[in-house]
Amino acid sequence: MLIADSLTFEIGKRSLVKDISFSIRPGELLIILGANGAGKSSLFRLLSGEKMPTRGHIQLHGKEIAAYTVAELALKRGVLNQQNIVNMAFTVMEIVMMGRYPHYSNSPAVKDIEIAQQVMELTGVIDFADRSYLTLSGGEQQRVQLARVLAQIWDVPNALLLMDEPVASLDLQYQQQTLAIAKMLSKRGFMVVSILHDINLAGQYADRIIMLKNGRKWYDGTAAEVLSSKNIYDVFEINSDVYTNPRTLKHFFIPRNVSLNINSQ
Amino acid sequence: MSKKVLLYLVLIIALFIASAFSMGLGAVKIPIKEVLIILSKKIGLFADTPVSAQYEGVLNIVRLPRVAMGLLVGAALGISGTAVQGIFRNPLAEPGLIGISAGASLMAVIIIVLEVALFAGLSNLLGYYLLAFGAFSGAGIAAMLVYQISRTDGKSNVATMLLAGIAINALAGALTGLITYIADDQQLRNITFWMLGSLAGATWETVLAIAPFVLIPVLLLPRMGKALNAFSLGEVQAAQLGLKVNQIKRNVVVLATMGVGAAVAVSGIISFVGLLVPHTIRLFIGVDNKHVLPASALLGALMLTLADMLCRTIIAPIELPIGVITALLGTPLFLYILIKDKKKLVL
């Protein structure tokens, strides 16, 4: 169980996160939506333990995040960051094995290698396991990073998986694949929190959606509860039309054209 | 046999052969057979075989310490180069290029001038320890400065790192120049030797003085291989994998600068070894620091032994500064990496 209790995060006089509370249980896939600058990434850094909240508390499995050592935390949650810059020519396998580092001290056990292979297969990177990470495309690199994070928590019960825009540079197939993996893990008892930009992808997979605006939690509920043209306008300031998928009966949204405000003299 | 084991074997064998040949070279040429017999006598073999007293003397007093020094300095520079690149997360971070060696040499020069003024001479072991410590602290300060300057948001910026290195090299050079004005003739000669890099000053005393400063990093840094691998993902990512990032950074910087400081203290600035060595190793066995670190120590020792042989023989009886050879080999490689990675270095 992850509990965020009235989180506030300030840098100088600017409040990036304002009084946000929520909790998620094992088995839940939570997606966070919001415009640029809404506070998604700041909230993400608080949840991952990278930054300490100015006020408020985060509890993971009944214990304050701040009370865990970094080593303990590494055995409870995996984090897929938005930016991953690697300058050394590690092979894909070596990068994925780094995800197992918290689990072994000197040499990997057979189990560690098996898990690395499983997650590489799942993320579709096993075919270039021996290639240098530096020769891969942006999307392939992102899948390797996902594999590394999955390797880290694969065998951890009720692990927390945090993902910051995991599909940003992925093609359509792997956007679906990544979210499907997240969904599958949540069904296995993981708690998954992901930031996304694509409302429809969120609607397709989320058990729950939180919409942020100006650092505050604006809406919180299931896709059916919170995704509406009105709410999308409130948060993204964009008009959209709602359609219904005839097969799944889920709603999806198509934004309308925006008119640019250019002063023509 | 895996590639890695093969590489270790080749390096160790080459190291023995190169060392033995290097001991034979010089004004007095000692045949390799005699070298081996004299060395064997030290461990009690061939006790009855007669050898020339002159050969024995030259070997014991001149050649052995020189070769030992080359091995120590080379191992220190090789492994420190790899470690520094691990912390900076970049294969271009060479201790000489980014000002670490210059920081060490500045402190060494200050100590030469001050120590001679205070204690009238720098000949005893204590003096050399002081020198090594001084160089170590200079290296440490320079490393921390470049690191802090080149880092934004937990990422280190290559261009800023190299530019900060230029600035620190220039500053250390200027301050060293300033000090030469208050140095006397003897000190000036010492200081010049520092700037070019040479193993000519090798004695048993200097070897003993730097041995611990080299052996500690050579023994401890290979244990940080896993941590340095994780570091290459980024500081934030390394912390998410359970590493105490600040503690590791501090330990690696202390160990690496200890090696560079010791090397600079007795042999001056020998640049590009920290670039050439790890790069060559990575061509053979990849970038896993668990193996690149120890292999870099071996190849560094080998490379410096070979370079020292070259600089003693090319224009014998005159000796070339060893720094000239390493720079001649290292700069083309540096330019090659720059050109190859040009696109990636655009910010």
Automatic annotation (TrEMBL), chain A:
GO terms for molecular function: ATP binding; ATP hydrolysis activity. PANTHER family: HEMIN IMPORT ATP-BINDING PROTEIN HMUV. NCBIfam families: PRK13548.1. This is Heme ABC transporter ATP-binding protein. It comes from Pedobacter hiemivivus. SUPFAM superfamilies: P-loop containing nucleoside triphosphate hydrolases (SSF52540). Part of the ABC transporter complex HmuTUV involved in hemin import. Responsible for energy coupling to the transport system. The keyword Translocase applies. It comes from the Bacteria. InterPro entries: AAA+_ATPase (IPR003593), ABC_transporter-like_ATP-bd (IPR003439), ABC_transporter-like_CS (IPR017871), P-loop_NTPase (IPR027417). Residues 2-239 form the ABC transporter domain. Keywords: ATP-binding, Nucleotide-binding, Translocase, Transport.
